[in-house]
């Protein structure tokens, strides 16, 4: 699997993953690499954002935890979208509340993964998000 689909979405095969928990990062790196993606991981939202701004075309997708010290996942999403509005962002969270649900509705969150999740669900969500990004890109080009 990967970013290349039958539809031709070939931007690249790189994912920026952000989570402050080292064990989660280690497991996600293995899962994502097992799915055929190249992964750059950061434990800090600010460092991830700095990396992203250095090469915004370098990533097909950003996956980030919601609850992190310093910069929440929603804060990182806003910053990423400010640099590259077309880059899809998947938010991971162990829990949601009404306030977070409202933010998710208002912001350009591509998908939400509720922890814990299986590798198959991760693969399905990534595939759907990237397919949707490709279709939007093609629609925008045709318009």
UniProtKB/TrEMBL annotation:
A single BP term in Gene Ontology: phosphorelay signal transduction system
InterPro entries assigned to the protein according to its UniProt record, in alphabetical order: Bact_response_regulator, CheY-like_superfamily, Sig_transdc_resp-reg_receiver
Q: What is this protein called?
A: Response regulator receiver domain-containing protein
Tell me if Methyltransferase is a UniProt keyword of this record.
no
Q: Which residues carry this modification: 4-aspartylphosphate?
A: 65
SMART domains documented for this protein: REC
Identify the residues that the record assigns to the Response regulatory domain, covering every copy.
14-130
Species for this entry? Desulfatibacillum alkenivorans DSM 16219
Keyword GTP-binding recorded: no
Keyword terms of this UniProt record: Phosphoprotein
Q: Which Pfam family, any one, appears in the UniProt record?
A: Response_reg
Q: Where are the transmembrane segments?
A: none
Q: Which SUPFAM superfamilies match?
A: CheY-like (SSF52172)
């Amino acid at each position: 699997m990967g970013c290349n689909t039958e539809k031709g979405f070939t931007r690249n095969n790189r994912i920026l993953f952000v989570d402050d928990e080292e064990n989660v990062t280690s497991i996600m790196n293995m899962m994502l690499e097992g799915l055929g993606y190249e992964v750059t991981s950061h434990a800090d939202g600010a460092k991830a954002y700095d990396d992203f701004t250095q090469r915004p075309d370098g990533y097909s997708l950003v996956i980030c935890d919601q609850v992190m010290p310093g910069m929440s996942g929603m804060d990182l999403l806003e910053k990423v979208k400010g640099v590259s509005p077309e880059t899809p962002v998947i938010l991971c969270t162990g829990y949601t509340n009404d306030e977070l649900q409202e933010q998710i509705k208002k912001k350009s969150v591509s998908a939400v993964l509720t922890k814990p999740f299986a590798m198959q669900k991760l693969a399905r969500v990534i595939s759907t998000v990237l397919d949707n990004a490709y279709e939007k890109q093609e629609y925008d080009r045709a318009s």
